[in-house]
Amino acid sequence: MSDLYIHRLTALIDQAAKANEEAFGQAASRFADSLEGGGLVHLYGSGHSVLPVQEVFPRYGSYVGFNPLTDPRVMWHNVLGAGGVRELLWLERTEKYAEKFLDHQPLNKGDSIIIFGHSGRNSSGIDTALYAKKRGIFVVAVTSKNNLDKPATHSSGKRLADAADLVIDTCSPIEDAIVPIEGWSRPVSGSSTVLAMILAHELIARTAEQLAKRGIELPVFASPTISGVTLHDTDVIYGVYRERMLEAQKKHLPTFQATMRGE
Q1: Which of 194, 31, 21 is nearest to 112 (CA)?
Q2: In DSSP terms, which residues pair with 116 in a beta bridge?
Q3: Distance separating the N- and C-terminal Cα atoms of the chain
């Protein structure tokens, strides 16, 4: 029996690679600008779109400069009950909530941010994009352009793709699932999260390439299972990350204080 899922997924990967060639270069150049200037490339998503955020950093093969913005209230920890899916589905559709979370994050002018969201219609991602753009941050949306036929539901009249400076298209179908099963009314096996992760790794690689061309090397996490690499090496990189985060927080402090004063 031939595979049901893999060949369909690889076809979408090939489609996305071709569709995003120009956008990859533009995003990597801007991310390299942010990192070269001592800034950060932030990462945001809610629901399943938190998974690409966690996949980018921290992990082996990634490097200092990425900052995951993970809010446990828009991540599910149970199926039902406290921390369950129903709660986060409601919260990620609630306008202005994300702003309260983002006020405490070191988002500074000159930074960049990647926002993941398959449908691009949830308030959480759109609010984050609008918030970041107001602060001079370059916004990249990783979403499916197939959803652009759906009308916006956000009060701004925008979808995530509309609110971003640049769009990386996952090419995932609206329904997300890609395997039709005879006798079943709905397809199975989702594609959007896997595609978002693959595209994120392409951005990691291209940004590193851009930095290398500028003579810049950032510390890369390597597995301590590799000969010559120890857990201490990992701790050293965490120390470099902490220093960069402290600088970002210091730079952000006046903005945070002004926000708390209602200015």
Answers
A1: 31
A2: 142
A3: 64
* pLDDT of amino acid 251: 93
Judged against a pLDDT cut of 80, whether residue 89 lies above it is answered with: yes
Token look-up 């966690």 returns: 54
DSSP string, 86-103: HHHHHHTTSTTHHHHHHT
CA 70 from centroid of its chain's CA atoms: 10
Instruction: Render pLDDT for 227-257 as a digit per residue (tens, 0 to 9).
Output: 999 999 999 999 999 999 999 999 999 888 8
Q: Which residues touch 215 (CB under 8 Å, ≥6 apart)?
A: none
Pairing of strands 177-179, 188-190: antiparallel
CA-closest candidate to residue 111, choices 21, 245, 222: 245
Average pLDDT value for the chain: 95
What pLDDT was estimated at residue 262? 82
DSSP string, 26-48: HHHHHHHHHHHTT--EEEE--GG
Does residue 224 contact residue 234 with C-beta atoms inside 8 Å? yes
Q: In the block, which residue shows the tokens 């759109």? A: 126
pLDDT at 77: 84
Instruction: Give 78's contacts (C-beta < 8 A, 6+ positions apart).
Output: 84, 85
